[in-house]
Amino acid sequence: MAYIKFKELSKYFDFKKEIDEDDLPGYTKEYVSSKESIIGSYKNSKDYVVFTDKRMILFDRDALGVAYKKIHMFPYTSISSSAINFKHGKVELLFSFDSGYQLHINFIEMNHLKKEKLKVIYKKMMNTKI
Questions:
Q1: How many CA atoms lie within 13 A of 60 on its CB side?
Q2: CB of 15 within 8 A of CB of 107?
Q3: Strand partners, 50
Q4: Model pTM greater than 0.90?
Q5: Total number of domains constituting the chain
Q6: Residue 113 has pLDDT above 80, yes or no
Q7: What is the dihedral sign for C-alpha 57, 61, 66, 69?
Q8: How many whole angstroms separate alpha carbon 29 and alpha carbon 32?
Q9: 6-10, 37-41, 101-105: which range is least confident on average?
Q10: Does 7 fall in a domain?
């Protein structure tokens, strides 16, 4: 039996705006368990990312929002390595998962306070693994 690894997640996402839990679309909240708490959420023109205390949920929609919607769920325990990069006006989160997949998420137009919020989220994510 042959096994071929599918490497779809080696792509980039750019998020611009933090949003409150109350402002998330209903379909995003359907994927958050009653045993989880949302610690942060972000959006761009078409995609959302929700960080809970247990996992990251990524909602990947096509440009028009009608052809497809993919929902990726990443338990923090499946992250094998990660990095956070602080750049001028930008924060990058880089993840490698136990499966070999990689994910690169950019947060753009970030001031100091927004960067600090992402730093707190990142620390909570990585402390979940310990």
A1: 14
A2: yes
A3: 41, 57
A4: no
A5: 1
A6: yes
A7: negative
A8: 5
A9: 6-10
A10: no
Distance of alpha carbon 13 from alpha carbon 104, whole angstroms: 7
Q: Is residue 1 part of a domain?
A: no
For the chain, the 3-state helix, strand and coil shares in percent, each to the nearest 5, are 20, 40, 35
Residue with tokens 């989160």: 93
Angle at alpha carbon of residue 73, lines to 35 and 66, rounded to 5°: 115
Sign of CA dihedral 108, 22, 82, 130: positive
In a domain, 6, yes or no: no
- Any domain includes 18: yes
* Ranges of H-type helices in 1-130: 26-29, 112-128
List the CATH number of the domain containing 95. 2.30.29.50
Looking at residue 63, its amino acid is A
Nearest to 117 by CA among 37, 41, 14: 41
CA atoms of 18 and 48, how far apart (whole Å): 10
Could you tell me the residue range of the domain that residue 103 belongs to? 12-128
